[in-house]
Design goal:
Immunoglobulin-like, 6-stranded antiparallel β-sheet, 9 helices, hydrolase, Aldolase_TIM
């Protein structure tokens, strides 16, 4: 039930000296355990970079049982990172559909340190759409922050030969604060901390599209969401992302003890992007009039 040609491809990879391999589990290459065994048999061991591009995704669609149960696959983790979602599109709601799909799909595994996303076994909600039209610059910034705070691999998707786009998005994708959030590991890859109680429905391109296709399905979203990732093992330092998913400006409240009791009631806050100090009220703080699709990215 493996599909593809793992024995031949593994032998070719060893002969050609490849150090990185992407296995596209959306096609016929459905058995990652078999692929890993063939790579080792061919003498490549586990390549320095081994990507599995679907994590049993075709089995979910086909309502089939994968050859290796998902929890076992995550425990053994034959790939260094694995796709967990449908393809992403350059659309704000596609981006957050994928992040929320990842959160929901992995919810049962987050408390299992042997199955949760971790160094050497990252979950991947697809490549970045930063700088890809029609995504706006504000949306690109929020998108990049979400990938960073959830420890998602950062694979650029825009045309690097386009100097105009490159100059526009370089301050986002090369920001030292955001990249520090992405690289941090303190035993937790990042979590959805809180949803607003208010929700709304929005047409969403699920899967790869250049624009919202006719007949695209409606999806339900929280009006705002808060994500958090520890930056230190004692949980006294955190990265927190507040996102306005709605179509109008919103106030977003943040209670510091919701992030971690270790923060206390009066943490020192700074802006991830600029490093500048952010004045916050003790106990909780409401960030007022956050623009549609914009975000607040903090170190606490």
């Amino acid at each position: 039930m493996g599909g593809g040609h793992p024995q031949q491809d593994a032998a070719a990879a060893a002969k050609l000296g490849f150090t990185g391999i992407k296995i596209d589990g959306c096609g016929p290459a459905l058995n990652m355990t078999l692929w890993t065994a063939e790579l080792r048999r061919a003498g490549t061991g586990k390549p320095r970079v081994l990507i599995e591009d679907c994590l049993d995704k075709d089995f979910w669609w086909r309502e089939m049982t994968p050859p290796t149960p998902t929890r076992e696959l995550l425990h053994t983790c034959p790939a260094h990172f694995y796709r967990i979602t449908r393809d992403v599109a350059p659309d704000f709601y596609s981006v957050f559909f994928n992040i929320n799909f990842m959160v929901n799909k992995l919810a049962q595994f987050y408390d299992d340190p042997k199955a949760a996303p971790r160094p050497g076994c990252w979950s991947y909600p697809d490549m970045l759409e930063v700088g890809v039209e029609p995504l706006t610059l504000v949306e690109s910034k929020t998108h990049f922050a979400a990938w960073c705070v959830m420890s998602s691999p950062l694979i650029l998707g825009f045309d690097l030969t386009n100097e105009t786009t490159y100059r526009e998005v370089y301050p986002i994708v090369a920001n030292k604060g955001a990249l520090a959030v992405s690289a941090a590991w303190a035993g937790n890859s990042g979590r959805l901390l809180k949803n607003s109680t208010e929700t709304f429905v929005h047409v969403t391109p699920v899967g790869a599209h250049d624009s919202v296709p006719a007949g695209a399905p409606n999806q339900t979203f929280a009006t705002w969401q808060i994500f958090a990732k520890p930056m230190a093992e004692d949980h006294r330092r955190w990265a927190v992302l507040l996102v306005n998913l709605g179509v109008a400006a919103r106030d977003i409240p943040l209670t510091f003890l919701d992030v971690s009791p270790a923060l206390g009631r009066d943490p020192i806050a700074s802006d991830v992007w600029t490093g500048e100090r952010v004045t916050v009220a003790p106990g909780s703080h409401t960030f007022e009039r956050v623009a549609a699709h914009d975000s607040v990215f903090l170190f606490l």
